[in-house]
Amino acid sequence: MSMENSLTIIGGGTGLIGHHLVQRFSQSKQSVISMDNSEPDSQVRSAQYFDVDLSDENQVENTFKKIFADQKYTHCTLINCQGIADPTNGPLQELSLNQWNSYISNNLTSYFLTCREFIRNKESFESGAIINLSSTRHLMAEADTEAYCTTKGGITSFTKALAISLGNTSIRCNSVSPGWIAKPDFEGRPSDHKQHPAGRVGRPEDIFGLCQLLGDPTQDFITAQDFVIDGGMTSKMIYT
Q1: How far apart are CA 232 and CA 236, in angstroms?
Q2: Stated pTM of the model
Q3: 2 Cβ partners below 8 Å, 6+ apart?
Q4: Helices 205-215 and 16-26, interaxial angle, to 10°?
Q5: Is 148 a catalytic residue?
Q6: What is the pLDDT of residues 102-151, one digit of tens each?
Q7: Which of 73, 103, 148, 239 is the catalytic position?
């Protein structure tokens, strides 16, 4: 299917993974929109950018009204990868309610808001796909990461429930759970790479191929799934 009349909307488009997704999808013939509250650099200027706090209900509603105001699309994909990236919240007994709520708002509520507005505008596209980035931290954890892990578990469960609710509609919904994804200039220690069965730490470009597949309108039998992409780490038995 031609993607010339398709749109990809990327929440968190200036973050580590989102930045790369905006770059790569911008190289295709489809339109790309980046949503974030951090100004993009010149490398992603080919995408249309909306400065928006994705945890703010009014801002999200108004942004989606602008996105779909005058255009109809053959296919539209929403990719959510916004949120607080630091998984460490410190000891739970020292975690304030404001800090907890900040994780919930930025990492989970923002997904609810963008998905809701996407669905509300479903008359603007013939078929749609929602891809919510979660994390392998909904399957495994380190100490002092309760808030972050809670949001990632919430994203995965929210995605599955939403996919079932959207059954027999034109919108599919899946989640992607990356493992350790490093910045492009990361070298790391040999032990960092060797602990991965794939032989290396993940890169942002590892996520693009999977998102491209899940967003493809011809893949209409893939829905309600969580896809782990972690170089094999969650399957590796480690004894210390």
Answers
A1: 7
A2: 0.95
A3: 29, 74
A4: 60
A5: yes
A6: 999 999 999 999 999 999 999 999 999 999 999 999 999 999 999 999 99
A7: 148
